[in-house]
Amino acid sequence: MKQSKILKKLLNNTTITEKTMFVISISGGKDSKATLIVSIPELLKVVTSSQIKVIFCDTGWEKYSTMQEINFIKNRLDDLNIEFKTLKNENYPIGMLDLIKDKKAFPTRDVKTCTQLLKMVPAVDYYKSLNDIGLDVITLVGKRRDESEDRKDIKDFDYYKYRNWKYTIFHPIADWTETDVYSFLDETWGIPQSYFNGNSRVGCDECFQADLKSISLMSDDKINQMSELECYISQFHRDINPTFFFRRNSTFPDGFAPIKEIVAYAKQKHNFNNHTFHTRALKFLADKLGQKSVRYKFVQYGYVPDKTNFSKYVNGVLPVPQSMQFHIELILSKNSLVRERGELLRFQFLEELEKEDMNIKCDCESYNLL
């Protein structure tokens, strides 16, 4: 089972006393969950369970499946005698709904009031409260270097010092890939249910930077609530059209996308049932040649271990490892007709369009909460 070399190195080079408090921030997503699971055994080698806290910043806008995941984690922590705390910004007791009405505007990619006020503020206030009673705070965050170009230079740790207080952030899985995370969770506490439901990210339902696959899965209740908020905000901004999902493309040249229109657009263009091009291509090959035959080829060439549950790649539960992708295309080119190949390439083209449409990713993780 994969371990965190980064965390082991940092713990070996950190002075740890009875005043050291480790705080692990979780969101209900895969990276924070992997960080939590891989870190606890290492931390318990150097401190008692009372010196470990796990926090979750509740925006009041979370997916139902996310809250189920949070409750599952809380129960596991109870068994380990580790304290779990749900944090909120006291100025916005209901969370996102209060925030939107107070600001009379939706959060945007440039003005991430939700991340700052509903996640960053309560988390940092908690770190400060621990520091104020004489504890040295080290918080652990699930950020990875391969998530985006902006994160490729993530350090193993960051140190923050303010006028009268300080804290340190460790990044235990900074060197892990997405496949590492999924495989690790599959072997331990399980992959969060939200990913099985077709969501590419978890947490807020919905994040204003959700991809079109997630938007296409929005419930009617949430769509109607968003539509009512659009009407509410429009009372205060006669010169602009309020929108939660800002999309500037050929369909929405001005960027304004009313919630009902953007959901319809997402369902029409990008509802791909959580399959990437390579997952879809792998499923096609498994259907055509037989899953055992395709699996044998990948085991034979060393692309997957012999005991790998290959169906998880075929069904899109685990992302197809990069080492397998070239081989998929090679087998595909030898075993598909022009028409079939064309259909798959069209899917890949649409997938690339979606990536271009979502070229700016939400940076909630920078605030210690992914």
Question: Would you summarize the structure shown here?
Answer:
By secondary structure, the chain is an alpha/beta fold. It has 15 helices and six strands.
Q: What's the structural blueprint in terms of helices and strands?
A:
Layout: H1 5-12, E1 20-26, H2 30-43, E2 52-57, H3 64-79, E3 83-87, H4 96-103, H5 113-132, E4 136-140, E5 157-161, E6 166-170, H6 178-187, H7 193-196, H8 212-215, H9 220-234, H10 259-269, H11 277-289, H12 291-300, H13 311-314, H14 322-335, H15 338-357
Parallel strand pairs: 1-2, 1-4, 2-3, 4-6
Antiparallel strand pairs: 5-6
Helix pairs in contact: 2-6, 11-12, 11-14
Structure keywords:
370 residues, six-stranded mixed beta sheet, 15 helices, 6 strands, disordered C terminus
Number of helices: 15
Average pLDDT level: 83
How many domain modules? 3
Strand content: 5-15%
Helical proportion, percent range: 40-55%
Let me know the number of strands. Answer: 6
Shape by Cα distribution: flat
Rg value: 22 Å
| Biggest pleated-sheet summary | 6 strands, mixed
